[in-house]
Write a structure and sequence with these properties.
The protein is 24% helix and 36% strand. By secondary structure, it is an alpha+beta fold.
Length: 80
């Protein structure tokens, strides 16, 4: 299926001014939220930064687009 035939793709086509590409981001998370085997009592805060492939800002929703999906899916879910 072509991306622009999906629900999110159609929203981007209808609201191109609300779609932002290649946006830098930074956030801090606790180590136990990212890595198995890290106990809460041993927790360290970890700085995560990178570039979001794109996001679409709507009135009641924010759609993050990750083209190169990596193991940090949980981080993106936390951002929303």
């Amino acid at each position: 299926m072509d991306f622009y035939q999906t629900e999110v793709g159609q929203k981007i086509l209808k609201h191109p001014a609300d779609y932002h590409r290649e946006v830098p981001f930074s956030m801090i998370m606790n180590g136990h939220e990212l890595f198995k085997g890290v106990n809460v009592s041993d927790d360290e805060r970890i700085l995560i930064h990178g570039i979001i492939d794109g996001y679409l800002k709507m009135t009641r929703a924010l759609f993050w687009l990750i083209i190169k999906l990596i193991t940090l899916t949980k981080i993106i879910a936390t951002l929303i």
